[in-house]
Write a structure and sequence with these properties.
Among the domains are: about 1-90, Rossmann fold (3-Layer(aba) Sandwich); about 140-230, Hect, E3 ligase catalytic domain fold, CATH 3.90.1750.20; about 295-365, no CATH class. Helices cover about 50% and strands about 15% of the residues. The chain has helices at about 10-25, 40-50, 70-80, 100-110, 150-165, 170-175, 190-195, 220-230, 260-265, 275-290, 295-335, 345-370, 375-390, 395-405, and strands at about 1-5, 30-35, 55-60, 85-90, 115, 120-125, 140-145, 145-150, 245-250, 250-255, 275, 405-410, 415-420, 430-435. A hairpin with a 6-residue loop joins strand 13 (about 415-420) and strand 14 (about 430-435). Helix 3 crosses helix 12 (about 345-370).
């Protein structure tokens, strides 16, 4: 079911415009809800219908109808998207992609916490099993069902990562392990050391079964060792580029530069556009490096500071608004319990309930934004510095950075276009690639 919602417009003008837009775009509106400024009664009704699965499409004039400020609008938009609602705006909203870049940097440097992907909020580890019933990796012991760090082995783990990152060979590292044995009680071999270097549990990440281990190494040390491991013991590469944002506007066959002509020009592929994956990746990486120069990193951090300042200011007013409404709600609820059963009392309580929920939602969004923009100058500079040398990084990290900055790559029979977020302006730029 498709419905429309608007706030703060003259009924006849707003309703007529929405109905005309729906007719022109073949949208069958079941109903149009309206609210005056500062009122959320019908908006809460729309949310209730959404929770019950009675709506699949919501038509709005613009993002301003989702809330009184950008925090509330963003929170509301995420609510509808999480519930699978298709949002259609009559006025195309302007989008600043710098928020997405900040979220990417925040996640990049937050390794030992889970990420709520809807909010971008960093949450404490949850669903952690309190009784560790498996054999822990080398570097840990289990005491009373709780994994603890074995300091002697942990020091060896750090030594392995540091030695390998500094250029020591796998054979040299095996010799330096001496009488230490693996978690299975066997002597260290070349394969055991490689397995240790690939074990992400040393970062403190939560396992699929809910087990959590204390971190033993930093992510920078992990990346230094992992990048070398990827170069020296690279897994078989996929035939397609590592970018997962390719939009196929025509039949495409990807090939690597080493593929022979028969593969590229065979009968089966004659109707498709042949794209060299190596050259495509290289071209995109050059664009990313060009956009991530140091002056852009400095300007981006100024944006981060301004956003954090605005979030802190907004949080003060949001707390006051929420506390005031909560106080009124408590007074009215007590009066209702004591016997105030008039229809007017019921309406006031419902209105206060709506306002309390909305202001609470706004406060949560501001807290999340405040947390998001707590990234430091060192983190911003580190991310941009790695993006500038993206071609020298591991496949894993290259994919992460490209996914943060590149919106998508559109491939048609005539051209290949890369749509990339400009960290200086927040706008998406279209760059045409040639000779791919």
């Amino acid at each position: 079911m498709a419905i429309g919602y608007m706030r703060g417009a003259a009924e006849d003008i707003g309703r007529a415009s929405m109905q005309r837009f729906a007719l022109d775009n073949n949208i069958e509106l079941e109903r149009i809800f309206e609210d005056s400024p500062g009122r959320f009664v019908n908006f809460r009704l729309v949310q209730t219908l959404t929770k019950r699965g009675l709506i699949d499409t919501l038509l709005l004039r613009g993002t301003e109808d989702l809330g009184d400020d950008r925090y509330m609008a963003l929170e509301s938009r995420l609510f509808f998207e999480r519930n699978g609602i298709r949002l259609i705006f009559m006025n195309k909203p302007s989008v600043d992609r710098r928020h997405d870049i900040a979220l990417g940097i925040h996640r990049y440097y937050s390794f030992i916490t889970e990420t709520d992907e809807s909010y971008g909020l960093m949450l404490p580890l949850r669903n952690t099993r309190h009784v560790f019933s498996r054999v822990p990796p080398f570097g840990y012991n289990v005491e009373n069902g709780v994994p603890v760090v074995n300091e002697a082995e942990a020091e060896r783990v750090r030594m392995v990562f540091k030695s390998y990152a500094n250029g020591a060979s796998i054979v040299e590292i095996v010799k330096s392990m001496g009488d230490f044995t693996s978690a299975r009680g066997k002597k260290f071999s070349n394969m055991t050391v490689k397995t240790l270097l690939r074990n992400e549990r040393y970062l403190g990440r939560l396992s699929k079964k809910g087990y959590h281990l204390p971190s033993l190494i930093t992510y920078d040390l992990w990346l230094s060792a992992h990048e070398r491991l990827e170069r020296e013991y690279a897994p078989d590469r996929e035939p397609e580029p590592y970018f997962d944002t390719v939009r196929r506007l025509c039949p495409i066959v990807f090939y690597r530069g080493s593929a022979n002509e028969n593969f590229r020009l065979g009968e089966y592929y004659r109707s498709a556009v042949a794209v060299d994956s190596d050259r495509l990746e290289s071209a995109v990486e050059k664009i990313i490096a060009a956009y991530c120069k140091q002056e852009n990193a400095d300007s981006f951090y100024e944006y981060v500071l301004e956003e954090k300042k605005q979030a802190e200011i907004a949080l003060c007013s949001a707390e006051k608004e929420y506390d005031a409404v909560s106080k009124q709600f408590g007074i009215k609820l007590k009066a209702l319990i004591k016997g105030a059963r008039e229809e007017e009392d019921q309406r006031e309580l419902e209105d206060l309930t709506d306002r309390k929920n909305i202001y609470g939602m706004r406060r949560r969004r501001i807290v999340s934004e405040n947390e998001l923009f707590s990234i430091t100058k060192e983190q911003v500079d580190g991310f941009f510095e790695r993006a500038r040398r993206i071609s020298k990084l591991s496949v894993e990290e290259r994919s992460w950075i490209a996914g943060t900055l590149v919106r998508y790559i559109a491939i048609s029979k005539d051209e290949i276009a890369v749509f990339i977020s400009n960290p200086l302006t927040g706008r998406v730029k279209r760059r045409i690639l040639t000779e791919i």
